[in-house]
């Protein structure tokens, strides 16, 4: 699953599952499933209209928004969009819906009553997975994950107000009302931090940067604005930010790879635990940070000679136990566009890949980014990591030249 949304009366939670193409409605007071609705390919996020009469779910694997009657639990109509709608939210008065795209560089505005797109606004990137609207309806903020930026839309004029650089893997955005006013919190997954900005300004104003756990993704504020909760996709937990101190005050363990998160107040009796299961004891995962080859190596000398040192590859990853096998997820940037790279396991920190165990192959896109996954048995990794936690024991090699372009240490 990825998306979560809740009804205005806080009695129903909508759970969007990308793998099974479903929307599951859960009674928040009893934790019972009320029903399941099947929609199109790879739905991503879904939210209720302010009056609760409809649930809109973006179908990211196709080109429409599925409009669902939550009482009858069935799709009633579709709103046509460009390819790959990423998320939809509503203006506070319920008259407009705003949605971004994951494959098309535009932000769209829909007349809710007519279910028609009334405005299309070009944006800086085709990959915008998340957006949020301020409580007064004045601004809409949307993230651009692929280029590390945030766009702010002025709702009155339906025009771009400004675009600001935020950081690698800019994931989600949301707002909290604090003593300093309404602040925007943005998760920067590739840099393990949250950027905090003022809203309502004519230009970007960064308030502070808050370090977090590994790969912050979804976030949601408490109703009183004193806390912001951050889902740690690679950290398998939730960081809690105190908005007075502007720092993480605790981390709550969760299941693996949390991405979406919502805060629903007064949704259930304090003692309600029916249909809930205790969280199994979390097995420690292994965090990886990929670093360029050491100074003085053949690769760094080559980089200094041709002026590409600033473009040295960067990356991070995580190894998780998945029952009988283990999973590896990696994310890279600043690779050579279009080049194919091999991820290999190698003991030690050698400058070339000699005897190594191939894991997976990734291909950099036109902007030098790549993501990869591998499955297998990594007991040897775990034993080695526990015994020599500060040693380099994984390397990324270019398949064409066998050059080591980065090696990983356990965090």
Write a compact overview of the structure shown.
The chain has two helices and 32 strands. It is mainly beta.
How would you describe this structure in keywords?
single chain; 411 residues; mainly beta; Methylamine Dehydrogenase, Chain H; Immunoglobulin-like; 2 domains; 8-stranded antiparallel sheet; 4-stranded antiparallel sheet; 2 helices; globular
Level-1 CATH class name of the largest domain: Mainly Beta
Strand order of the largest sheet: 29-28-31-32-25-26-27-30
Overall domain count: 2
Overall pLDDT, averaged?
Answer: 86
The largest sheet is: 8 strands, antiparallel
State which percent range the strand residues make up: over 45%
CATH topology (level 3) name of the largest domain = Methylamine Dehydrogenase, Chain H
CATH homologous group name of the largest domain: YVTN repeat-like/Quinoprotein amine dehydrogenase
CATH architecture label of the largest domain: 7 Propeller
State the low-pLDDT regions, or none: 303-310, 349-353, 385-402
**Structural class of the helices, strands and pairings?**
mainly beta
From the alpha-carbon coordinates, what is the Rg to the nearest angstrom?
Answer: 22 Å
Overall 3D form: globular
């Amino acid at each position: 699953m990825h998306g979560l949304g809740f009804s205005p009366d806080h009695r129903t939670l909508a759970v969007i599952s990308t793998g099974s193409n479903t929307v599951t409605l859960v009674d928040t007071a009893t934790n019972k499933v009320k029903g399941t609705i099947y929609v199109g390919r790879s739905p991503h996020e879904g939210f209720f209209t302010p009056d609760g009469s409809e649930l809109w779910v973006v179908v990211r694997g196709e080109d429409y928004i599925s409009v669902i009657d939550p009482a009858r639990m069935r799709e009633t109509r579709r709103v046509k969009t460009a390819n790959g709608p990423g998320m939809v939210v509503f203006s506070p008065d319920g008259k407009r819906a705003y949605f971004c795209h994951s494959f098309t560089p535009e932000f769209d505005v829909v007349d809710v009553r007519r279910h028609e797109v009334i405005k299309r606004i070009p944006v800086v990137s085709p990959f915008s997975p998340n957006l949020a609207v301020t409580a007064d309806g004045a601004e809409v903020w949307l993230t651009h994950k692929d280029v590390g930026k945030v766009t702010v839309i002025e709702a009155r004029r339906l025009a771009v107000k400004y675009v600001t650089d935020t950081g690698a893997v800019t994931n989600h955005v949301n707002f909290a009302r604090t003593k300093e006013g309404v602040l925007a919190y943005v998760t920067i997954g590739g840099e393990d931090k949250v950027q905090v900005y003022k809203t309502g300004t004519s230009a970007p104003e960064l308030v502070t940067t808050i370090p977090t756990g590994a790969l912050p993704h979804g976030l949601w504020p408490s109703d009183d604005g004193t806390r912001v909760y951050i889902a740690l996709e690679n950290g398998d937990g939730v960081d809690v930010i105190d908005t007075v101190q502007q720092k993480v005050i605790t981390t709550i363990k969760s299941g693996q790879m949390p991405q979406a998160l919502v805060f629903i107040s007064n949704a259930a009796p304090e003692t309600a635990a029916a249909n809930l299961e205790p969280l199994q004891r979390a097995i420690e995962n292994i965090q990886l940070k990929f670093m360029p080859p050491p100074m003085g190596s053949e690769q760094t000398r080559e980089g200094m000679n041709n002026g590409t040192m600033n473009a040295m590859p960067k990356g991070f990853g995580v190894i998780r136990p998945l029952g009988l096998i283990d999973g590896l997820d990696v994310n890279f940037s600043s690779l050579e566009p279009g080049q194919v790279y091999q991820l290999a396991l190698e003991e030690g920190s050698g400058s070339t890949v000699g005897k190594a165990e191939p894991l997976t192959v990734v291909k950099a896109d036109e902007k030098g980014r790549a993501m990869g996954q591998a499955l297998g048995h990594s007991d040897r990794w775990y034993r080695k990591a526990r015994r020599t936690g500060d040693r380099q024991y994984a390397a990324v090699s270019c398949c064409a030249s066998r050059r080591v372009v980065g090696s990983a240490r356990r965090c």
